[in-house]
Structure formats: C-alpha cells, structure tokens
Design brief:
Pfam families: Pkinase. With 312 residues, the chain is an alpha+beta fold. The protein has helices at residues 65-80, 119-125, 133-151, 193-206, 214-217, 227-243, 254-260, 273-282, 293-304, and strands at 13-16, 19-30, 33-39, 42-43, 49-50, 54-62, 90-97, 105-112, 167-169, 175-177. A hairpin with a 5-residue loop joins β9 and β10.
Length: 312
C-alpha cells in the first residue's frame, strides 16, 4: 500500500488539524506509515512562518473504515496520556480520503519529535560494551513510570505492545513510550468460540510474539488480558536491556518455553542479584503472582534510594 503514498519533499506545507506545518525531512517508513521531521510553526504578524518548534508527523495509509477506526482509537489513547513526561506527546491529527475514487484513507498524526532516536538505536551504540546496570535501571524506571500512568487511569489502559522498539529518546535523554495502536482496556476471558477466535486474531495481529505473556498464548487459561500482561512484557524488555536478546527466542518450541516460563541467564554480562530477581518476579507464568506496576516502581525506588513518585 505504501506505493500509493508519494513521499513529501522538504518544504512541503501541510495542515494537520488546526496546525500548519512544514516538512523538513523524511525519516523512515514502516508498515503502512511514513515518518517525517517537520517544523511546527506559528504565523507572526507579517503572515510569515516563524519556526518555533520541531515535531514529528506519522502519515498512515489505511484501506477501509475499520483501519480508520483503529487509528482513531490510537489517537484517543494518546490524548488521554498527554500529561505524562514519559510518553510521546500527541499534538494534533487529521484524516481524509486519499482520493475520491479509492477506499483508502490517509491519517496524519502530529506528535512530539524525539531527537535522540530510539532505545534500539541507543542499545546498538553500546553493542560492544552493552549497557551497565545504572543505565538499565534508569531506562527501565522511566518506562515503568510511563506504564503506571496508563495502568492508573480509570478504566486502566493496557499497552499490549511494550518492546524495545517502542521506546524513543527526547533531547533531554528522557525515555518515552510510543505506539499505542494495540492499546486497549482490560479484555475478559472469552466465553464463546467466536470470542475466542476474535481474541486470538487480535493477539496475532496486534502483539509481538517474543513479548506475549502465557495468558495471551493459552487463551483457555481463563485469565484476562490485563495489566499483568504488560508486566510480563516489561520483564522481557528488562531481560533484553541486560542481555540484548529476549529470554525465549533461542528455544525451538518458543511458545512452550513461554508457557512454562523456562529460560536462563547468560553468564555475561554480570548483573546484581536484585536486578535478576526483578526479572524472575516479572516473568512468573501465573499472572496473579506478578507484581503490579506500583510494586515494581517501589522496588526500583528503594534500590536507587529515592522516594517512590507514585502511590498505590
């Protein structure tokens, strides 16, 4: 579908919702989206552009109204999360038909620009030495604060696609969660065959295999998809921050290893017992035994000798 989207050239002026923007450069593409860096200007008295800020534009092509509704859900989620300093900020959005003779829509989502790229890029910069425990704790702490903002909403929001690739870094080296296309409220266990198939399809299409929790794989377990599924994914992310691989990817029967929470710790790099114990606690196969996000942040706050910034 990306063939239907011509790339915007530098200098192209666009209107996104109530904001007029100017394309600076094309950054990347992925799936059915183009990502741009742009000026997010305002007009001065002489009606010329006065550049006041840099922003990011995600331009997404969707083939039908179902896809459009999914993007609208993502935008609605971002609007609810705008006050967290650890979540990429939403600015504005706009959707329109690509042309009159097609069913395709294009959606513009204007958001905060994170100038220090992604957590994956940051890890690759340190691929020889790997990250040290201080760096890992700092990064993971900020990610947990982002997730706490989601989990303490009423009703709670479940990210459902927490992973290294969905963390960006702003100009102050704050680590921020992004990509809310899979986010939902709590999903109760299916009580009919149709609900089972529907949930199976959602998990297959909207989650990342290596980060799926046991209850996402075994839908007959009668557990909801709730905050504890995010906690599991945080455990996978923390393991990958430490060892640059996910804990189950080297097993031939990947799903069985996840269901049994069967993994091991590499001999190197060496990390403290406290950090490894945290991974063990997060990756418990029984979701009821996993901690909630407050307990994780409280644990990390104690280890850093700082006050816990949230209350349960």
């Amino acid at each position: 579908m990306n063939n239907l989207l011509e790339k915007f050239l530098p200098g192209t002026q666009l209107t996104v919702g109530s904001h007029k923007v100017v394309i600076l450069k094309y950054i990347a593409e992925g799936g059915f989206a183009h990502i741009y860096k742009l000026h997010h200007p305002c007009y001065n008295l002489s009606n010329n552009f006065e550049y006041t800020d840099i922003a990011c534009l995600k331009r997404v092509l969707v083939k039908d109204k179902a896809g459009l509704n999914q993007l609208r859900n993502e935008v609605d989620v971002m609007k609810k999360l705008i006050d967290s300093p650890y979540i990429v900020k939403y600015i504005d959005s706009h959707a329109s038909k690509l042309s009159s003779n097609t069913s395709y829509y294009q959606v513009f989502v204007l958001m905060e620009y994170c100038s220090n790229n992604s957590l994956l890029d940051f890890m690759n910069l340190h691929i020889k030495s790997k990250l040290n425990e201080y760096q890992i704790t700092k990064i993971f702490y900020q990610i947990c604060l982002a997730i706490s903002y989601m989990h303490y909403l009423s009703p709670p929001l479940i990210h459902r696609d927490i992973k290294i690739e969905n963390v960006l870094i702003d100009s102050n080296f704050t680590f921020k969660i992004c990509d809310f296309g899979s986010t939902s409220e709590i999903i109760n266990p299916p009580n009919s065959q149709q609900q089972f198939y529907d949930l199976q399809s959602i998990i297959f299409n909207q989650t990342t295999p290596q980060y799926r929790s046991p209850e996402m794989i075994n839908l007959y377990s009668n557990y909801p998809i709730n905050e504890k599924s995010d906690i599991w994914a945080l455990g996978i992310l923390l393991y990958k921050l430490c060892y640059y691989i996910t804990p189950f990817e080297n097993y031939s029967n990947n799903e069985m290893a996840i269901l049994q929470s069967y993994y091991s710790f590499p001999a190197l790099p060496v990390f403290s017992k406290n950090l490894k114990n945290l991974i063990i606690i997060l990756l418990q196969k029984d979701p009821i035994k996993r901690p909630n996000i407050y307990q994780i942040i409280h644990y990390l706050s104690l280890s850093q000798k700082i006050n816990c910034p949230i209350v349960d």
